[in-house]
């Protein structure tokens, strides 16, 4: 079974986000970048599938600039067998990403495609669902547990109402929740080996996909700084402040 894992290069979750002075977006100059945490869970699940004898090959794929090779090398260091970079200077919207990934699926013919349920930079939570629609494949989103049985998989999903277990047939799309697993840390020898492994680079334009943006970012602004809290002497004073100052009662 071949597994295709989509990964994305994002601003590291430990970095404090800064907005550009002109409000056109997030400042990424000299900022530490890393693999999207949800995608790390997806890659870890694929690696565990291979260890269990379920998967035979793991292919990591990303859409981005040449700098995204760092993210793919992280995937190779963790244990991915191959890596594909779809070179795109302008970051496509989720629909564009899904269209590009659908072309890669047609070429690679995987039985399972795993994506993080969302990326921490835009939180769109759309690519996996759009990819499933384009391929007309079953999908299991927000997976916190996966058990493969022959040509199907039992998925436990995280929902607002609690846990839901579904069974879907393969080939299928799976999007992962953080509670699915604990991603491994690559060892130094694996990191060194990954630096020498080739990465297949394909130009996004070569797929003949319409990547025309459908959204326009008008402005980006940082949230207002939270006001410092105050200490109240008793419950009566708390109620008074909530009623007369905060206006929540």
Automatic annotation (TrEMBL):
CDD domains: ETF_beta. InterPro entries: ETF_a/b_N, ETF_b, ETF_beta_N, Rossmann-like_a/b/a_fold. Keywords: Electron transport, Transport. Residues 23-211 form the Electron transfer flavoprotein alpha/beta-subunit N-terminal domain. Gene3D superfamilies: HUPs. GO terms for molecular function: electron transfer activity. The keyword Electron transport applies. Belongs to the ETF beta-subunit/FixA family. The electron transfer flavoprotein serves as a specific electron acceptor for other dehydrogenases. It transfers the electrons to the main respiratory chain via ETF-ubiquinone oxidoreductase (ETF dehydrogenase). This is Electron transfer flavoprotein subunit beta. It comes from Cocleimonas flava.
